[in-house]
TrEMBL record:
<dbReference type="InterPro" id="IPR036388">
    <property type="entry name" value="WH-like_DNA-bd_sf"/>
</dbReference>
<keyword id="KW-0808">Transferase</keyword>
<protein>
    <submittedName>
        <fullName>NBD/HSP70 family sugar kinase</fullName>
    </submittedName>
</protein>
<dbReference type="InterPro" id="IPR043129">
    <property type="entry name" value="ATPase_NBD"/>
</dbReference>
<dbReference type="InterPro" id="IPR000600">
    <property type="entry name" value="ROK"/>
</dbReference>
<dbReference type="Pfam" id="PF12802">
    <property type="entry name" value="MarR_2"/>
</dbReference>
<keyword id="KW-0418">Kinase</keyword>
<dbReference type="GO" id="GO:0016301">
    <property type="term" value="F:kinase activity"/>
</dbReference>
<dbReference type="InterPro" id="IPR000835">
    <property type="entry name" value="HTH_MarR-typ"/>
</dbReference>
<feature type="domain" description="HTH marR-type">
    <location>
        <begin position="20"/>
        <end position="69"/>
    </location>
</feature>
<dbReference type="InterPro" id="IPR036390">
    <property type="entry name" value="WH_DNA-bd_sf"/>
</dbReference>
<comment type="similarity">
    <text>Belongs to the ROK (NagC/XylR) family.</text>
</comment>
<dbReference type="Pfam" id="PF00480">
    <property type="entry name" value="ROK"/>
</dbReference>
<dbReference type="InterPro" id="IPR049874">
    <property type="entry name" value="ROK_cs"/>
</dbReference>
Length: 398
């Protein structure tokens, strides 16, 4: 039974040329999780009555189940629909700086497992292929899930990746530059492969489950060890011709500044990225430290650490001001490990944004000033987004 459901679902989700009303409803459910009939009608552009009929048929064939959702604070549970969790699974893999993380989730958006494997810095691709395959196999055995129902594997990559799946120069994974992800993983995993850079994946996670649900236009600005981001317009993440749209960390801040890993000089990341902050902190400590330790120290009141984060916020806001001048988005989602510092980062960031951008909040009518919020998933947004690549069918490598 589970296998039959899986086959139906694979066809409806992965064969994009199928554009029947049923396929549209199934894709809306896959992309949004538990949703009401009216939400599906809005997403698909189909009449509410058509959606109701289709949902009835899908329930009878067990591909869709009814679930109760409860909005916080509002007593009565509402009826929503979701794909049958038994109908399929999706795997997201983060190729991170020092770890490979794997999240297994079902098509109803429940996380089944979340494992992290530490790797030494600058790890090589061939070591990862075997670990990923082995871990995924074990997860399916451990949870007694049929591997045949795995719809696809999404990869979040620390660095830019071309739409064809090739890892581009400037990546934080130097040994992976030039690697074709699909050629590497498809023969081993024998499943559709999806991929995008980790900041784009983070934006997808915030759109699907986090701080930007139902927001069609926003900018995600990610301040972690590196600095990246994503531009979301009309509900879609902009990829760009080479896949590097939203690489805000490489906006040139000082053309005479230090050399960046991308080959340019004085990139924004060198002034407000986590690595720049930990480098300065290590000079004081005379030992290695982590971004998390610096943020924790700042939150506990350490004046020096606060100053480092405030200064990073000031520079970040200036970079973001250019983005704001170009795109004028209604929402900025500030993400990454540095965002854990909350207002210590946000206050100077917003002040310098306001100073340097074109549209000042005082000169716009009420409600048009951009909002700044901290992302919901600061720790695992990239891996969750990798799961989302499969569920939303974004970044399929063919
Ligand atoms: Zn750079």
């Amino acid at each position: 039974m589970a296998n039959m459901l899986g086959d139906d679902l694979k066809g409806l989700l992965n064969e994009r040329q199928i554009d029947t009303p049923v396929a549209r409803v199934v894709r809306a459910l896959s992309g949004h999780g538990a949703v009401s009939t009216s939400q599906i009608a809005r997403t698909t552009g189909l009449a509410r009555s058509t959606v109701s009929t289709i949902l009835g048929d899908l329930r009878r064939s067990a591909l869709v189940v009814e679930v109760e959702t409860r909005s916080p604070g509002l007593g009565r549970p509402a009826l929503a629909h979701s794909l049958n969790p038994e109908a399929g699974t999706s795997v997201g893999v983060l190729l991170g700086l020092r770890e490979v993380r794997i999240i297994l989730a079902d098509v109803a958006h429940n996380v089944i497992s979340d494992v992290s494997m530490p790797f030494e810095r600058d790890y090589a691709p061939d070591r990862v292929i075997r670990s990923v395959k082995h871990t995924i196999d074990n997860l399916y055995k451990e949870h007694s899930l049929p591997f045949s129902n795995l719809l696809g594997v999404g990869f979040a990559v620390s660095g830019p990746i071309s739409p064809a799946g090739r890892i581009m120069p400037g990546s934080m994974l130097p040994n992976w530059v030039g690697v074709d992800l699909r050629a590497l993983f498809e023969p081993v995993l024998q499943k559709p492969i999806f991929a995008d850079n980790e900041s784009h994946c983070a934006a997808l996670a915030e759109m699907m489950w986090g701080a930007a649900i139902d927001v069609e236009d926003f900018v995600l600005f990610k301040l972690d060890l590196g600095v990246g981001g994503a531009i979301v317009a009309n509900g879609r993440i902009l990829t760009g011709a080479a896949g590097t749209a939203g690489e805000f960390g490489h906006i040139v801040h000082d053309p005479q500044g230090p050399l960046c890993r991308c080959g340019n000089r004085g990139c924004l990341e060198l002034y407000c990225g986590g690595s720049a902050i930990t480098d300065l902190a290590e000079k004081r400590l005379r030992r290695t430290t982590s971004l998390a330790e610096v943020v924790k120290g700042a939150l506990a009141g350490d004046i020096g650490y606060r100053r480092l984060i405030e200064d990073a916020g000031e520079v970040a806001g200036r970079g973001l001001a250019m983005v704001g001048t170009i795109l004028n988005p209604p929402l900025f989602v500030i993400s990454g490990g540095l965002a854990e510092a909350g207002e210590i980062l946000l206050a100077p960031l917003k002040t310098s944004y306001e100073r340097y951008t074109l549209t000042k909040s005082q000169s716009t009518s009420d409600g048009f000033a951009p909002r700044f919020v901290v992302g919901r998933f600061l720790d695992n947004d990239n891996t969750m987004g990798a799961v989302g690549l499969v569920l939303r069918h974004h970044g399929r490598l063919t």
